[in-house]
Amino acid sequence: MTKLLIDLETSRIAITENNILKELHIEPGSQALPSGQLSLQKTTSRVGEVLVGRVRTIMPGQFAFIDIGSGKNAFANLKDGHSLKSGQPLLVQVQKDATSQKGAYVSQDINLKGHLLILYKHPAGETGVSHKITDEKESRRLKKLARGLLPAGYGAIVRTNAKNCTQEMLQEEITNLHKKFEEILERANYALPPAKLYPDAAIPLAPILTDILYDTLDEVCISGAGFDETKDFICTLAPFLRDKIFAHDSKLIKNSQIKKALEKTVSLPCGGFITIEQTEACVVVDVNTGNNTNNQSYRKTVLNTNLEAAKVIISQIILRNLSGTIIIDFIDMHNKDDENILMEALAKEAKRDRTNPEIFGISRLGVVQMARPKRRLSLSQLVEVNCPHCGGSGRIYK
Questions:
Q1: Which of 237, 280, 300, 330 has the most crowded Cβ, counting Cβ within 10 A?
Q2: CA–CA separation, 236 vs 119, rounded Å?
Q3: CATH of domain 264-383
Q4: How do residues 98-152 score in pLDDT, each as one tens digit?
Q5: Prediction pTM value
Q6: Domain 2-44+204-256: CATH architecture, name and number where available
Q7: What is the mean pLDDT of residues 367-371?
């Protein structure tokens, strides 16, 4: 059974399959956790926010720095706004969160994401369809349908969730998103920067929920104050879940589950294991045979371990929200056919990832490199802080 768990008290969302944690999202709040438990940082993801900021500094040929009401000025590529002037108000949308080194990345290209499609301004009404809809006939149907329903001056990208949807379903979502878009543009005319215009603060988890409402969910459990508002929001985006939403009176996502999701070593069913190291520059994953003997030949043992590792690695990347450059050191294989089998399996598993990571082949050094878009902070960045004794190196003097 696949469940969506929403804990409004701690701003946590999880997806479980047969009670096993598969996906975890956290929007840190201001509530302190009991002593000895994981401590959430006082920051929250702003990806997807639409706001009016104020241009502060312009770096010719490079960036414009914009005050969006956070500690650090956000920045936008000048190709997104080469005619900007210092001091002017500017409507922008957050594309990437701020880090310890730099402010958030914003763009003047605004889009509103619904369950079935993404709506944006486009004079020619450009329409695209998710490449994950591989049925060409269905892709053409959706593209033609959406193009005929779009209001003038708007374009759209039809999402994977829209597969097999009806015209009425698309029309309803386009109407709702268009109304919200026009409201944002109207409010932007008189908002005093910095001012947040979207999403509604009453639903702080809205950006995440928009991405993870599937028709394959068996149950949606909500705990904490705000059940009615959250249920209404979900039903607006995904009316097919209306009869699957239930209130829950206890904490749904425990700290022990989060701690387990951050463990350095993850066991494989075959007896092998992987280790995961997250650094400033990249994420490194190492695969080991461990206790996997199974009375097989060495070649079969290695291939079996690597194939199990591929599945677990993708699951862990999604669960921990690892991004940027990811280097995977599989166990060396000396057979080209086995390497091809492994890469096909890894690519197949990666299709489960909504961020569409790019996978490169096995390099001359024998490692696989992945590039995964960075949109939100990783789980570790959200719930862990550097050790005051080792400074985050993970090592201390004897």
A1: 330
A2: 16
A3: 3.40.630
A4: 877 788 999 999 999 888 999 999 988 899 999 889 899 999 999 999 999 999 9
A5: 0.73
A6: 2-Layer Sandwich (3.30)
A7: 95
Say how many residues make up the chain: 398
d(CA 163, CA 134): 10
Alpha carbons 20 and 63: distance in angstroms, whole number: 44
> Helix (H, G, I), strand (E, B), or coil: what is residue 136?
helix
DSSP state of 330: P
Does domain 50-107 fall under CATH 2.40.50.140? My reply is yes
Report yes or no: 118 and 112 within 8 Å, Cβ to Cβ.
yes
Give the neighbor-by-neighbor strand order of the sheet with 273-278: 265-267, 273-278, 283-288, 324-329, 368-372, 358-362
Residue 185 buriedness (CB in 10 A; 0-12 / 13-18 / 19+): middle
Q: Which residue ranges does the chain devote to CATH 3.30.230?
A: 111-198
Neighbours of 128 (CB within 10 A): 15
* Cβ atoms of residues 396 and 390 within 8 Å: yes
